[in-house]
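sry for the spam today, last one i promise. struct tokens for design, 138 residues
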């Protein structure tokens, strides 16, 4: 189980690297378009965060759909798991050790654990991206 979690973490790291590369490509394309429109005398230092906020927003919306999918999946799986696999009655308490071993409960647990990892990586990626791209002093 731990090796599977480590493998899933590695897969999520690779996905996050690819997404970060795509985000940076899109941002650089937009910045280069803006620079080419301006006179040759103007430099990249004159482009401010406020001028690029719309472009950043477009790129973020494009790539956030992946994470939105995992957040919705996590929310649904967590609620379904509590209803199906651990009922809130005395009878549910007694039979829960048997129910949690069933395939559908194991599948729901897998979704909950992996979606948690993806969501955690989302926050790490977002913080890193903000730090490396928006908070740069030029």
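last one done:
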């Amino acid at each position: 189980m731990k090796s599977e979690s480590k493998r899933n973490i590695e897969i999520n790291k690779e996905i996050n690297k690819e997404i970060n590369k795509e985000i940076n490509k899109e941002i650089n394309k937009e910045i280069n378009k803006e620079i080419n429109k301006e006179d040759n005398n103007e430099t990249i230092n004159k482009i401010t965060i406020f001028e690029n906020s719309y472009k950043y927003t477009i790129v973020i919306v494009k790539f956030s759909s992946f994470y939105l999918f995992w957040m919705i999946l996590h929310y649904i799986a967590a609620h379904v798991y509590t209803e199906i696999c651990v009922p809130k009655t005395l009878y549910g308490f007694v039979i829960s050790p048997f129910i949690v071993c069933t395939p559908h409960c194991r599948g729901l647990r897998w979704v909950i654990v992996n979606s948690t990892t993806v969501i955690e990586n989302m926050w790490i990626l977002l913080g890193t991206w903000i730090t490396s791209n928006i908070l740069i002093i030029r």
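DSSP finds four helices and no strands in the chain. ok im logging off now
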